[in-house]
Design goal:
This protein is 9% helix and 46% strand. The protein has 138 residues and is mainly β. The radius of gyration is 19 Å and the shape is elongated. It contains one helix and eight strands; from the N terminus they run E-E-E-E-H-E-E-E-E. It has a single domain (6-137), classed as Irregular (Factor Xa Inhibitor), CATH 4.10.410. Strands 1, 2, 3, 4, 5, 6, 7 and 8 form an eight-stranded antiparallel sheet that branches. Strand 6 and strand 7 form a beta hairpin.
Length: 138
């Protein structure tokens, strides 16, 4: 994968409808996607050369997303705030250029607001996967 523009990494939230429509989350300037897989160690006294052995496919997988930016409009601010306070898992879509699209349920695990006296109000949020995340390559 060659160099990509950071603004092309998109974070979208579903409206809960059928079919579901996704809208881009308000004015995010920085986004981070983290994919994780825990390992299950099955090493025992008979392990070859006493090297660690891991059980394939047995660990817990998770995804975490964080973003920070500025408010674009009152509707998107209200939506993020509503999703945080309800703590309901909502469908989110993450588009990573030249990599793929991740889609599935996430909870808003953190929501922060900040502002400088001579600057704009900003926010930061974190999402934690709350179920199976699908992947499709671009």
């Amino acid at each position: 994968m060659g160099a990509q523009r950071g603004k092309d990494l998109l974070l979208k939230i579903g409206d809960g409808g059928s079919p579901e429509t996704f809208v881009t989350v308000a004015g995010l300037r920085a986004r981070t996607v983290s994919l994780n897989a825990r390992t299950v160690d099955v090493t025992d006294g008979d392990s070859a050369g006493r090297w660690r052995e891991l059980l394939a496919g047995a660990g817990v997988r998770s995804a975490a997303v964080s973003g920070q930016g500025v408010f674009r409009d009152a509707a998107s601010d209200a939506l993020i705030r509503e999703v945080f306070f309800s703590q309901a898992a909502r469908s989110w879509r993450l588009i990573v250029p030249d990599f793929g699209t991740l889609e599935g349920p996430f909870l808003v695990s953190a929501l922060e607001y900040a502002g400088e006296h001579e600057g704009e109000a900003s926010f930061a949020m974190s999402l934690a996967s709350a179920g199976e995340i699908g992947f499709s390559a671009l």
